[in-house]
Structures are given as C-alpha cells and as structure tokens.
Design a protein that fits this description.
A two-stranded antiparallel ribbon has the order 1-3. The protein starts with a strand and ends in a 9-residue tail after the last helix. The longest helix is centred in the middle third of the chain and has 33 residues. Helix content is about 70%, strand content about 5%. Helix 1 runs parallel beside helix 8 and helix 8 packs antiparallel against helix 16.
Length: about 475
C-alpha cells in the first residue's frame, strides 16, 4: 500500500530525548490521512500527566489509609477490610464486556467520560451518608454497608472503561518513550501522593466536627478533583476504536527526512474475526497472564492488611501512618524515573525478576517490627521507603510489559482479559487473607505475611519464560 507520513514528538518538556525510531499504529479513514503531529502528541502526554495527578487526589480520598481509617472508626471487621480490597479487583470481571462495548464506540474520550463520570458521581452518596449519621438518619453499621456498596458500584462502572483507557494511552505514548514517560508520569503521581496524603490526614484528624465529618469534607474535595481529571482528557488526542482496528503497521524505521517526519509503510489489513483466534494462540500472552495472576494472588494476600496491622496491632496513630505513606510515595517518586530509564535500556523482565524477589521477601521484615520508639521512628519509616523504591519497579514494568506483549489490534480486549483474570485472583487473595488474619491457628497477620512471601517467590517462576 501507499506509505503514510507520521509526525512524531521531537522533544518533550519533561526532559524526554528526541525520538529516532517508532513503531506505531495508524487509524484512518483513508490511506493518507493518518497523522500524529508533534504538538497534539506533546499536548496529549502533558494532559495525560495532569489527568493522572488529579485522579491521584481523587484516589487518595476514596481509598488507601483515609478510607481504611474511616472504616476503623466505624468498627469494621477484618472481613470488611478484605472485601474492601477485593471488590476493586473482583469487578475487573466486567472489563471484557467493557472492552467489547468500547471497541464498538467511535470515541475513546466520550466513552471514558461516561463510565468514569458515573463512577465518581456515586461517591457523593457516601458524602451524604456521612453527614446523615450526624443527623441520625443511619447508624454506623449501615454506613459500613453503604461504603461497600459504593465501592462496588463505583469500581464496577470504572471497570467498564479501564481497558479502553489503557488502550487509548498505549496508542498515544510512543514505544521508544514508554519507560521514561510512564516513569515521569508515575513520579508526578507519587509526588502528589507525597504532598496530599499527610495534608488530607491532618485535615481529617483535626477537623472540628470529628474525624468522620472531616473525612466527608475531604472526600467531597477529592470528588471535585476527580472531575477535573476527566476534564484534562479533553486535551488528549481522541482515538476512534473502529478505525484503530482497521489497519496495523508492522514496519519500524529510523530515518528522518528534511521535514522532521518519519515515513511508515507496509500497512496490512487484518480480517475482523481473526482477533479471537490470535488471543488463544498467543502463548506468550498466556504465560504472562499466569505470572500476573499468581502475583496478584500472592501480593494481595497481605498488602491490604498492612494499614490494619499498623492501626490496630501496633496502635500507630493515623497521622504517623499517613507520614509513612508519604515516605513510601517519596521513595517511589525518586526511583520510578530511574527504573523507567533502566527499563528502556535492559528491558522490563530483568527488572521485574530482580525487584520481584526483593518485594517477595519484604513481608518477612514485619517480624522485626514492634511498637517500640525505635521501630516507630526508625524501622517503620525505613521499611516504607524500601517498599516504595522496589514497588515502583514492579508497578512500572508490569504495566510496560503488558503493553509491549499485546498486539495493537483490539488491544483493549487483551487488557480486559488480563485485568479480569488478575482481578479474580487478586480478590481471591484478599478474601483468603481476611480469613487467615482472623485465624489464630494460622498465626494471624504475621502468619499471613509469611505465607504471602512464599507465594510471591513462586509467582515469579512463569515470568522467566515470558518473551519481551
């Protein structure tokens, strides 16, 4: 077929170097109208970073330590904490349906606004419920149930858009910039987490109307920032899934002409019904799914119960716990850019194996932690810094590797399948962890931490066989 000229980013304001090669996908109504000019791509990447920053503020107020402390104030049981962590993963079963629907729409942006707009509006019900307790309309246990219902339906709506959003981002970010861009993007969200978590924690704990009412006010502010993040998506280059799936470009060239453009040719059309056959024949994808699902199972056995261990077993003040979370975010902030640059050079799999082993043995370090002054002021901060630095590598490289091993045609279907399977195993892990945490015969939380460490090491075995 005729060649197509594509303009790419020559430089970015985020210190991303010039691109000399590119493998990308073009979606076009004609053979010659597919163009990704420099300015729209730069604007899209910057808008995506701002989207992530504001979305992080929303996530801080609707999950993590703030929501955990809110449920502790309501005397929620460990089973509730297990359900709270398993629901966001379990509803990933809806992602294949969401991917199927999204591939039949004509705009990634409009679809994202619909599903995520509904998802974030639902949290307004919890704000009303929190103030309703003060007015005597509902009691604490009913508020716990209401919280779980909102978490369920909010993540259910968001799950319909996750695969489409990830496919949208995968199209926008050039392959050669993937490690560095996501490193910078994750660094920006970590900085946001570093600054906002302690501020939100202080606002909740020092609110004149009490911690519950304080959480309601902070939650309302987070919802506002959540909608600002959706507004940032307006400035990203929109993608029509119908056109994205029409053609795939296989060629990758590195020569530049005098106009600063790259010519990509050899456009090949693929029949519409071939995608499902390719999924089942893609053994590399399924080996990665085996690793990813086992890792989610092992990781989520104990990860949701770390804050519970700090708040209840060690009786650490919620203000200190937010400081620990900020230190963890700070370590993530410093290390994620370095991990991203290293991933572009050596690949994601070697980093995943190295960092995965470290993350696997980390739960065993909790056996050394007590509630002495030395532990609270030295070892706990150091442990959270250690977890932030190593966790940054795993999160970044898991995301990059999943994008790298999936074909671009119907890419959201692959993402949805990965999220659905990993979501089920992750939810299974948190549910099992909730029951083990309540069982003295299994050693309680410390026994759960040891069991998780063993399973994390075992989960890394399939990763050795994944071809990046």
């Amino acid at each position: 077929m005729d060649s197509v000229e594509v303009e790419i980013v020559a430089s970015l304001n985020l210190e991303i170097p010039q691109i000399d090669s590119l493998t990308t996908v073009l979606s076009s109504e004609s053979k010659s109208s597919s163009r990704f000019p420099e300015n729209p791509i730069r604007t899209s990447l910057q808008a995506s970073t701002l989207d992530a920053i504001f979305a992080m503020i929303f996530s801080i107020t609707t999950g993590g330590i703030l929501l955990s402390n809110f449920l502790v104030e309501l005397d929620a049981s460990p089973v509730v904490f297990g359900l709270l962590s398993s629901i966001p993963m379990l509803v990933n079963l809806i992602q294949p349906l969401g991917a199927y629907i999204s591939e039949r729409t004509t705009s990634r942006f409009q679809y994202s606004m619909l599903v995520y707009g509904i998802s974030r509006l639902l949290w307004l019900i919890l704000v009303i419920g929190i103030f309703g307790v003060g007015w005597g309309l509902i009691d604490s246990q009913q508020l716990v149930i209401l919280t779980l219902l909102i978490v369920f339906f909010s993540h259910l709506s968001g799950g319909l858009g996750s695969a489409s959003w990830m496919s949208w981002l995968a199209i926008i970010v050039p392959r050669s910039l993937r490690g560095r861009y996501f490193g910078i993007r994750n660094s920006a969200t970590s900085l946001t987490n570093l600054l906002c978590v302690p501020l939100a924690g202080l606002a909740v704990s020092h609110w004149y109307g009490g911690t519950r009412q304080g959480y309601g006010v902070v939650l309302l502010v987070g919802i506002v920032f959540g909608f600002i993040s959706l507004g940032c998506q307006y400035f990203k280059v929109d993608v029509n899934p119908q056109l994205q799936n029409t053609y795939i470009v296989y060629s990758s060239v590195s020569s530049k002409n005098e106009l600063g453009k790259i010519t990509i040719s050899d456009m090949v059309s693929i029949p519409e019904k071939q995608w499902d056959e390719n999924i089942w024949k893609n053994s590399n994808f399924w080996i990665f799914i085996l690793y990813f699902s086992l890792w989610m199972l092992a990781f989520n056995l104990c990860a949701p119960f770390v804050n519970l261990y700090l708040l209840e077993t060690l009786n650490v003040d919620v203000g200190l716990v937010t400081v620990y979370s900020s230190l963890q975010a700070g370590a993530n902030l410093l290390m994620v850019v370095l991990w991203g640059k290293l991933a572009d050079k050596v690949g994601n799999r070697p980093i995943l194996i190295f960092a995965g082993i470290i993350v696997a043995v980390t739960p065993l370090l909790w056996f050394r932690i007590g509630n002495t002054s030395l532990d609270i002021w030295l070892w706990l901060p150091l442990l959270h810094i250690f977890m932030g630095g190593t966790g940054a590598a795993v999160d970044l490289c898991n995301n990059n590797m999943q994008i790298g091993i999936t074909p671009v045609r119907n890419q959201s279907i692959y993402f949805a399948i990965a999220a659905a399977i990993a979501g089920v195993t992750g939810a299974l892990g948190t549910t099992i962890g909730g029951f083990i945490a309540q069982s003295p015969q299994c050693g309680g939380l410390l026994g759960l931490f040891a069991f998780s460490s063993i399973l994390r090491l075992a989960a890394l075995i399939p990763l050795v066989f994944v071809q990046e």
